[in-house]
Amino acid sequence: MASSSQPPNPEPQTFTTMDKDLEAIGAHCQYSYCNVLDFLPFRCESCRGTYCLEHRTETAHKCSHAGEWAARRKAATTSSTVPLRGKPTLATDTQCSHPVCKTYINTLTSTGVGCPTCNRQYCLKHRLKEDHACSTLVPLGARQASIASAQTQSMEKAKAALGRLKMWGKEKQAAVLPKPKPSTAASRVIALNALKKNAKGDDKIPLDKRVYLYVEAEANTTTAKLPKGEFWYSNEWSVGRMLDAAAKNLQVQNMNNRGGGEEEKLRVFHVEGGRLLEFGEKVGDVVANSNTVVLLRGIGPAIPNPI
Q: Domain AN1-type: where (predicted)?
């Protein structure tokens, strides 16, 4: 006789229980005339409903909130962007703050860069402090007392730099400045040919673009003996690029691009012109064949005609 306490026989698996497992994977289409089970359902961002592939669009399932998602996206896009302006003019757009530059900035084709020192906006060509003579400008929005203090400090630095440069010229003239140049045309040609024969440089520079120079470095610039050499550079280079190449040629440590102060920066002194060259000047405009340039460190910003 069977005991009445025995558990009933377990219900055998059916397709019904398997169907429940499948429902846990996908979702039924919420369109009233469909209700198909879709394993990769779509969500409507307007009414938040779930639909199959056939009824995923707002039109197909007759969305009760049609167009809400598009309106929300349009509003978010409009609030986060600046409306495009028409053709730039002097009245509607901003030009580079450099006095001779006419480039429109903050447009789709030209980005504007703000200078944190003088508080002005410049194009990419004049974004560096040396390119727009930042040290000579009064910062926009500065107080009168701050302006007077900055001007006083700038004048003191200029006087100190000028004094150092004059002192250097007197003390180092015999050791650094070259011998007197040949006076006759024939002797100058001979000297230039000898310079071209001994000079070194980038072979990729065309012959008609080369400027042959005597390059030297002040003894205080390096810890070794006063270096010097004969090199050629492109007349289309900027003085800053020529300085980088000259420092590499003479194996002089160059920290101009590391953000240090003036006491660590190298400057280029043009002997024949008697002045420090600006980094942005073109080599072919400020030097000529057989000229001499000297690398100086910590001499301060360029001063026109200091000697």
A: 23-71, 90-142
Structural contact between residues 211 and 287, judged by C-beta atoms closer than 8 angstroms = yes
pTM of the predicted protein model: 0.43
HSE at residue 125, side-chain half, CA atoms within 13 A, is 14
Question: Would 149 be classed as within a structural domain?
Answer: no
E strands, the chain, in order: 27-28, 37-38, 42-43, 50-51, 94-95, 104-105, 113-114, 121-122, 210-217, 228-234, 266-270, 275-277, 291-297
**Domain limits for position 209:** 158-297
Strands 210-217, 291-297: pairing is parallel
Indicate if 239 and 174 belong to the same structural domain: yes
What whole-number distance in Å separates Cα of residue 134 and Cα of residue 138?
8
Condensed to tens digits (0 to 9), the pLDDT of residues 221-272 reads 555 445 788 899 998 999 888 888 888 888 887 777 765 566 677 888 888 8
Phi, psi angle pair for 189, to nearest 5°:
-65, -40
Main-chain phi, psi angles of 238, to 5 degrees: -85, 160
